[in-house]
Design a protein that fits this description.
This protein is of the alpha/beta class. It is built from 7 helices and 6 strands, in the order E-H-E-E-E-H-E-H-E-H-H-H-H.
Length: 213
């Protein structure tokens, strides 16, 4: 699976990348993760490439090859649409609702891309923990069945990687994302059952583990 995460500095993109890489390694999958934009300045563009389950895969995902794009920032997510393959999946921070602009909708329709938006930052702010917006979006992706990991697996990973002072807040952020679509009352588009994992990525094989952050 090729997964691209796009956002800005300070949104915890590398934490989510490290979490997903950790979960892949726990399953014995080949994992390759790489960031293409630095985080030296908070608010600057950050893009993370994560490749799960492919032997001898290079670190960068080419345009038109990503299976899933997680846009933690609305503008950055839309800016990287060209990385999604035909029939790919897009989960975007709702922001100002630009996902539903005619030009964006036309491109998504032409490419057969399934798209959803989640007001992750709004949800996290209302819960008093803005730093959890990344995990709200991740939980929503899991609820849609768009990740190769189940909700219990992600929770286990959070328990392993979170700082003790933030663990409960991180878990709560994830759960709010998992519950978003049921609370909203909208059925996810052709998704697997909520909280269950997709089938394992293709080209499984054993090779030296790649250390995650």
């Amino acid at each position: 699976m090729n997964l691209l995460l796009a956002g800005v500095g300070g949104q915890g993109i590398l934490f989510v990348t490290g979490l997903l890489a950790h979960l892949g390694l726990e399953k014995g999958w080949p994992v390759c993760a790489c960031e293409t934009h630095g985080m030296a300045q908070r608010g600057g563009s950050v893009v993370s490439h994560l490749r799960l389950g492919r032997k001898e895969a290079g670190p960068l995902i080419r345009k038109g090859k990503a299976d899933l794009l997680l846009g933690l920032n609305e503008d950055e997510g839309l800016r990287h649409l060209a990385y999604l393959k035909k029939g790919g999946l897009l989960l975007l921070e709702k922001g100002k609702g630009k996902l539903w602009l005619p030009a964006v909708g036309g491109y998504l329709a032409a490419m057969g891309i399934k798209a959803e938006s989640v007001p992750a930052m709004c949800i996290a702010q209302q819960a008093g923990f803005p730093l959890g917006a990344n995990l709200v979006l991740l939980g929503a992706a899991c609820a849609l069945g768009w990740l190769p990991f189940s909700a219990p697996e992600i929770e286990k990973g959070l328990r392993a990687l979170s700082r003790s002072a933030l663990l409960e807040r991180n878990l709560e952020s994830l759960r709010m994302g998992l519950e978003f679509f049921s609370i909203r009352g909208a059925a996810p588009p052709k998704a697997t059952p909520r909280g269950r994992a997709l089938a394992a990525p293709r080209d499984m094989g054993q090779e030296e583990p790649v250390t995650s952050r």
